[in-house]
């Protein structure tokens, strides 16, 4: 497929383990910290979005059930008498 973009694996069969420089290790720690902060921020945003969605849903359901209840209580058609038809 598109395997030419994949970097080759490090082969440690010669007994040597790849050694990272201290600057590379420090950079990895910085990146991990930034990623952790990003994940925590996204989790907070997700939590707030769920709360907002629940509140909006509760508002919609409240309006819906209020409307259904209000329509049930209307009685203006109960006393409606059909007009007498005039025959010609």
Automatic annotation (TrEMBL):
Pfam families: Coa3_cc
One GO location term (cellular component): mitochondrial inner membrane
Membrane-spanning segments: 51-68
Sequence ranges assigned to domain Cytochrome c oxidase assembly factor 3 mitochondrial coiled-coil in this UniProt record: 35-83
Topological type in the membrane: Single-pass membrane protein
GO biological process, one term: mitochondrial respiratory chain complex IV assembly
Localization annotation: Mitochondrion membrane
This protein's UniProt keywords: Membrane, Mitochondrion, Mitochondrion inner membrane, Transmembrane, Transmembrane helix
Quaternary structure note: Component of 250-400 kDa complexes called cytochrome oxidase assembly intermediates or COA complexes.
Biological role: Required for assembly of cytochrome c oxidase (complex IV).
Family, similarity comment: Belongs to the COA3 family.
Protein name: Cytochrome c oxidase assembly factor 3
Organism: Papilio xuthus
């Amino acid at each position: 497929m598109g395997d030419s973009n994949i970097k080759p694996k490090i082969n440690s069969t010669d007994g040597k383990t790849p050694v990272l420089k201290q600057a590379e290790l420090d950079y990895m720690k910085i990146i991990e910290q930034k990623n952790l902060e990003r994940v925590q921020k996204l989790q907070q945003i997700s939590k707030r979005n769920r709360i907002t969605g629940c509140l909006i849903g509760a508002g919609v359901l409240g309006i819906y059930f209020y409307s259904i209840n209000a329509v049930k209580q209307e009685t203006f058609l109960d006393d409606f008498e059909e007009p007498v038809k005039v025959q010609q």
